[in-house]
Amino acid sequence: MQSIKNRFSHIPSGAGALFFIQIFATLGFAILYSTLVLYASKHLHFSTIKATAIMGIFGAFNYGLHLFGGYLGGRFLSNRNLFIGGMALQVIGCACISAGTVEMLYWGLALFLTGSGLNVTCINMMLTQRFKPEDIRREGAFLWNYAGMNIGFFVGFTAAGHYQLTEDYSSLFIFATIGNFMAIVLASFNWKSLVDLNTPLLNSTPAEFKRRFLIGLAILVGLVPVVWYLLQSEWTENLVKLISLIVGITLVYLTFIHKDKRERNNMWAYLILTFSSLIFWSLYQMAPNGLQLFAVNNVNLVVWGVQVAPQWIQNINTVVIVLGGPAMSALFVQLRAKGWKIDVPKQFAASLILMGLGFLCLPLGITFADDRGLSPFFWLFLSYVLQSIGELLISPVGYAMIGRMAPKQYQGIMMGSWMLITGLASLFSGDFSGMIPEPSEGTALTTNAAYSQLFSELGWSTVVVGVVLVGLIPFLTRLIKDKDLAEVEPVQPG
User: Fold this and answer.
1) Which of 54, 167, 300, 374 is most deeply packed, by most CB within 10 A?
2) Dist. CA 65–CA 58, nearest whole Å
3) Quick one: which of 204, 212, 191, 159 has its CA closest to 32?
4) What is this structure's pTM?
């Protein structure tokens, strides 16, 4: 334990604690993310269409509420308080889902999504506040924190797969309840080091702070029945898409009217990169939907004599992230020291091309299917590896670039909009997953052609967008360089 403390001793107070808090805070989401479709269809007997629709809305609410979380934390409850309150709702939500009924599923999801949707922005804001704008350690800290998140995913996916083999869902969701509770315990032990820095709430008087706190608490609790209702509404998907459009227009307007030229140019670069990331995340979010159904029905999941549980496939992603995050951070430092120019636009373009290639592996694998129509597991494995490397290039860097590019007064909304993009992508991934053939429509032999066509179209389209972004790199680099900051470089703790 002392050696761990030594490795984190030179980074700002609280940043090291957030790495460990992130691990436990991720468990509940990892379990629901990887299990919801299977739980809804196998245990609650939802149709495939209804189960995948629930998954799409789950992702949309989880990520979509991040936008509001940045506002609520920075101006009403404080990021630290909102994180604890959100985790408490997640704990209660997982406990409700463990009851095993349809009614408790919807209430459990409403509680969980309100909590996870609002508090994820808080933990990212607490981390970015530990660093000054010019601090080159920020990107490295986010890479490490992203690795911590994926350790939580690894544990959650592994437990989910274990319980999935026996369909012991009640024990699985109790496990998630305990894991999320541990995040509250760790945050409580590090309470002072997680204090908010540089937020509008800090400028309020004690009386104003108390009034805002009560308003924020009422909003936090009041959102639960609203989310419960929307989870069961047929027009929720269109509502989320409309909200996303409004937020996008708002950000464009704020960019137009912003007076500081350097900051305005950075905001334009942020908007272009964020829009391109929508394509990446739309394909990425197919993992618990269309790709999971493809894996279960059209891939040979017996590897070296071992039956692979569907959730364990997600651990391909987590292993690449956990091992690759620190390694990539160190590699970038070495390459930049040798004069290599590695910047955010190049990383985004590369991530899109890797995602496209990952999807193109799947139709290639289908050509090697056996006489039952089952594709070799290797091609699914390769697809996930390529997607994961792309994620490593785009996601932690995306978080870090907000601290670099966003004007102080817009950091909350821009951090939230980055999360909202992922929520919108979840709905689009549900739309794409709806194009796949139902398992009841035939065997793997008869459904492979439809899968192959869909994966080819998605893969090639994403590669093309990535190539277009390559052409925009000089323009984007000029925009970002207008801000007089030292180039952000990842630094590996220790």
Assistant:
1) 54
2) 11
3) 159
4) 0.75
Q: How many CB atoms lie within 10 A of CB 159?
A: 21
What is the DSSP code string of 292-339? HHHHHHHB--EETTEEPPHHHHTHHHHHHHHHHHHHHHHHHHHHHHTT
Rg (CA), the chain: 22
Which residues share a beta bridge with 299?
375
d(CA 265, CA 398): 17
Contact 293, 437 (CB under 8 A): no
Q: How far apart are CA 276 and CA 421, in angstroms?
A: 10
Closest C-alpha among 64, 389, 360, 78 to residue 212 = 78
pLDDT in tens, 106-162: 999 999 999 988 887 777 777 777 666 666 666 667 777 777 787 888 899 999 988
pLDDT beyond 70 at 190:
yes
Is residue 172 one of the residues assigned to a domain? yes
416: helix, coil or strand?
helix
By residue range, what is the domain housing residue 211? 11-481
In a domain, 493, yes or no: no
Whole-number Å distance between alpha carbons of 158 and 164:
10
Q: Residue 241 is part of a domain; what is its CATH number?
A: 1.20.1250.20
Helix H or strand E segment including 302: strand 302-303
Q: CB-hemisphere CA count at 13 Å for 3? A: 0
